[in-house]
Amino acid sequence: MSVAFDAKKGLILVRAEVSGPLQSAVLRLALDTGATRTVLGASAVTTIGYDCGPTAKQANLTTGSGVVTAAVVEVARLQAMGLEVGPVQVLAHPFPPTAKIDGVLGLDFFRDRVLRIDFQTGQIDIT
Fold first, then answer.
1. What pLDDT, on a 0 to 100 scale, did the predictor assign at position 64?
2. What is the mean pLDDT of residues 90-110?
């Protein structure tokens, strides 16, 4: 599988679809090779039908600002870049509107695969 991206822009943006008990949503995720886990915006996770409130299982999430608590949610399906996983655990945490993304696609999405990012050609190869 090969996916094109704009190598001149700051973030590698990925179109993803996530499914929950109520509905599915199309999200705009940043491919983040520095993130060990996939993190979706809490509002999107709530919209598709999951509970991100204080009764949800929690995990620590290390950000550039420090350590915060995020809800652990098992989503039915996550599809991006021609790959589909699910059910899969993700973290749910609010993203500020200025971020202009709905979350980050972390390394956990690519486990057991080969991920090659070529900035010269603007291609991502996944095998």
1. 79
2. 93
What's this model's pTM, rounded to 2 decimal places? 0.93
Task: State the pLDDT at residue 42.
Answer: 95
Question: For position 55, what pLDDT does the model report?
Answer: 82
Q: Give strand pairing partners of 98.
A: none
Amino acid residing at 92: A
Q: Total domain count for the chain? A: 1
Q: Write out the residue range of the structural domain in which residue 38 sits.
A: 2-126
Q: What CATH number does residue 109 fall under?
A: 2.40.70.10
Sign of the C-alpha dihedral computed for residues 127, 27, 15 and 62 taken in this order: negative
Q: What does the pLDDT look like over 30-68, one tens digit per residue?
A: 999 999 999 999 999 999 999 988 888 999 888 878 888
- 101: buried, middle or exposed (CB in 10 Å: 19+, 13-18, 0-12)? middle
What pLDDT is attached to residue 40? Answer: 97
Give me the count of residues in the chain.
127
